Request: fold
Amino acid sequence: METAIARVRPRRSIWKRARFALQKYVAVLRVSAANNLAYMMEVFFRALLLVVLVFILAQLWKTTFSVRGAHILSGFSIGDMIWYLAAAETIAMSMPALTRRIDMEVRSGQLAYLLGRPCNYVLYNFAQYLGERVVRIGINGAVAAVLAFVIAGLPHFTWQGFLAWPLLAFLAVCIDFTAYFSIGLLAFWSEETQSFSLIFSRLTLVLGGVLAPLDIFPQPLRSIAQALPFSSILYGPARTLVHFDAGYLGFLLVQQIITLAGGTLILLAIYSIAIRRVNINGG
Amino acid sequence: MKIIKTVGSTLRFIRAYLAANVQAAMEYRAAFWVQIFAMAANDSLWLFFWWNYFHQFPLTHGWQNTDIVILWSVSACGFGIGMAVFGNAPKLASIIMTGGLDAYLGMPRNVLLHVCIASTDPSAWGDVLFAVGAYLLLLRPDIWHFALFVLLSLQVALIFVSFVVILCSLAFFLGNTEGMAQQMMGALISFSTYPMTIFTGVVRLLLFTVVPAGFISFIPLQLLHQFTWPLLGAMAGFTTLIVLVATAIFSLGLRRYESGNLLGMQN
Amino acid sequence: MAIVEVEGLHKTLRSRQRGAGLANSLRSFVAPRYREREAVKGISFALEAGEVLAFIGPNGAGKSTTIKMLTGILYPTAGRVHVLGLTPWQQRRTLAYHIASVYGQKSQLWYHLPPQDTFDLLARIYELDMAEYRKRRAFLVDVFDIGEYMSTPARKLSLGERMRCELAAALLHKPSIVFLDEPTIGLDVIARQRIRDLIGQLNTEEGLTVFLTSHDTGDIEQVCRRAIVINHGEIILDTPVSRLKRDYLKAKTVDLLLEGSAEELLKMDSESEQPRLSVRAPSSIHEEIVETPGVRVLKAKGHGLKLEVDTAQTPLEPIIAAIMQHSHILDMTIADPPMEEIIAAIYSEKGKVETGHSKQEQIAQEAEKIEEVTP
Reply:
């Protein structure tokens, strides 16, 4: 049904909104350098932590490789390994504080007010999240790439892997959104949501293969981990970048889409229950 | 005599806050227990992964398979105790920036201590649960080793809390350092859960000074393998040192706060 | 013996000047330029035990800076302060056992716990003897009438109930002096009155010294006996509350209920065009009310007539007499002006800059004048 307002100001498509959000965040970052030092410091130290983690893991793997006297472990050379780590950590460390923001909006009662606005609350948050996340991935990616180059030299990417990576990363980021947004909504039923988001992120890190590619895991752990949705967030994109495999790509895409669908369903379910609570209790 | 009275009164003070904190956390009972068990399960999963890893790729230089358990148990137990008792310490930076210190300054107790014990982190209890469980089940220690484990965990707790306090106290001088403190804490925890053998040279030096992961897991590991009094002395000495440094930096910052000239704070 | 002694208190605040943009931010980091602001410029006063003081001033006047120096949170640039014989910033913890602060905006009660538990915790903080504490608690629960809320989590209490619990909590350790910052803010009329009564009661019965900061003039009028007005870091007035009204605004508000119509009363004599008669024999209401200096018509609608009479310029009696000649007066109230006006007058008379408050007053007065004569 077209309303008069809709004709005058057409509803922006989700992509357009994301682009605007991205531009807004780039602008915020530029302005932030002078004004919002705390925000810049946080992004900077996150990138620093990425350096620390990649460094530690690289050391660990180098030691492992040398103790084994091997050049290839489970199909990964030490160079591949380090670039894999860099790629996985880039995505892992770029998560903005989504759960905290949703939690605050629910708890402060602002949610009830925001629901009255003419744009969809979920999509609005998604656009904002996407903008922030892309910028962080950019910064982290640059830092990680430099570090990986310094430690391990040039990567051996294939052009297929390179092309596939943005799509896979995007799907991974969407999956993350459904998870952390839903956790944020749990603020209706729990005193605190930070620990839940922390636990989820740590599960993603270990089962999603940021410590090591899942190929290193022994069976049956490997099969279990690969079947679980977490692997589609970190392992999938990173491994495709480093070791492209058409067969696996197909499997990964299916896995990501199913996970995304499942996550979206869960999100919408929790969201509708939450809305009902807002309507009944008034926030 | 007066010292004993003061210590007693301080311990009662901490205990009263701990009780109040737990009670407040129990108001949402389901969430409280979920957080505890979820964190314990999470830690167990990570340990399981690394246990498997070191099974597959054993390191040389005297590294035993159970050593990873000790690394994790001691650091998790220390971290857990620290964040359970002094759970408000990580929020110190934002408390300073928003003028929240004023309420504590009006109270007849040591400000730093009071701020730090004012809240608890429920998931930290999960860390403690995991740590004690893992240590008892996987290492089967005798009573002496367990006692040493507890003693070391308490010291590790103080090291963690002092580390956070130092970083957050920089807010007195540099503005809101909360983001930085969080990430550095993450770095410290990360460094603490890996065997020292993979680090060399300058990095090792850093790990015994600026980012004291060496004192959090490596030295306790040595002590639990082979107890020597000098090493325990070194551990206790460092713990005392970092606590003193933390209180000194906080006091300096507090002096600045009391002058009203704090960066970014206009009345 | 004075419980609070303040002599020549000065506080200069230094803040770093920051420009906008990256270049200026970096410059301010490396070679900072400082800006100094005198927040408190030489304040002196003394407070006796048992006094109830209103500490009034517009925002930015130096109120909270002064209070922070009295409680030991800030130390001054110059001057001396003694509270209960102690120097606050040097003996802060000792002093803390004997004073209490209550902020209307911030809560001391734990959000999820019943007040009972906060009280127990406070007992531990202040190292109270348990038996004494229980007696004191029972007494305060009775006085503040909060017995039925003691086991309810604080988040479920209304603002008025919570405020009473806050006050009780603050008084558990029997402080000699309590600093109240906007204690009635956000409360409804009944709750507000209750808090005022309780403060008054504690002052009378226990000799509690009260240092009250409030923008609510009802608080000042009803609870406090002395007022210190501060602006631009200086004390501009230190006087009993009763004198505030007497000396600072001699205008009285006269509210009349007439038998006839007020508008008719005012209009009546503009047609008669009688020459101006002496005040002693008034017949022209128009002259008496509308033309006499010092008389302002605030409202004239229906049977209601409201006048403001500046008794310094013209006495009340002839005005009333003139009205009585032309109409029966059914009801009459003669009142002091609202406190807001008094405060605004003090600020603008004594202070050099017009505060936002008095500007609001002016706008309100203009608005009233517009609605005033509407036939």
